[in-house]
Amino acid sequence: MRTCYYELLEVDRTASGEEIKKAYRRKALEWHPDKNHHRVEEATKRFALIQEAYDVLSDPHERDWYDGHRDAILREDDDIYEPDVYDESSSRWGFRTSVQGTRTEDLMRFFTKACYQGFDDGKTGFYSVYRKLFEKLAEEEEDAYSHDRGEDADDFHSYPSFGDSTTPIDPNDSKDGNPIKNFYTSWLNFSTQKSFKWFDKYKLSE
């Protein structure tokens, strides 16, 4: 279970920016690995969490988002990390008329450091959270390609994986060339296959 950022710094949720800064300095000093030779591994993890908590709570926008989603984050709700693939409410006439999938408000949850915890491959780690997000987006695009565009799914250009903590940075270390470059090149040239028919106010055939 995740630990509340306010509890990590031992401050109230109404604490001022200055109080948060002072608490961070105090806790960082207490848990710095150099001062905890008898528990280096534990201290290193704790120190990283304290830094993470301060990074979020010291930024007004990050803190506001965290406060609004704190309970769900502490429960580790799946919907914080994985946007819904389909929104059946987009069907106006008894069937799904187009692929809506991830909404803007879903994506905004991933523009904050509070949506992940640590840079590892755990369920809530940086790599897992963003890999699952891009996998969802890619799945939606493939479905839209065949459903909205009426194209053969076998002809769909698949998107490279976001990777994980073991993805090599040096292209010489990968049999797939340069996986990081491939990922960014593909998504920087992204153009959706979705028709956005769910925004239609009327059924034009009527």
From TrEMBL:
A single cellular component GO annotation: cytoplasm
Domain J residues, every copy: 4-70
Molecular functions (GO terms): zinc ion binding
CDD domains: DnaJ
Name this polypeptide is given: J domain-containing protein
Segments for region (Disordered): 144-176
Keywords from the UniProt entry: Metal-binding, Zinc, Zinc-finger
Pfam families named in the record: DnaJ
Entry keyword Zinc-finger: yes
Cross-referenced InterPro entries: Chaperone_stress_response, DnaJ_domain, DnaJ_domain_CS, J_dom_sf
Lineage: Eukaryota, Fungi, Fungi incertae sedis, Mucoromycota, Glomeromycotina
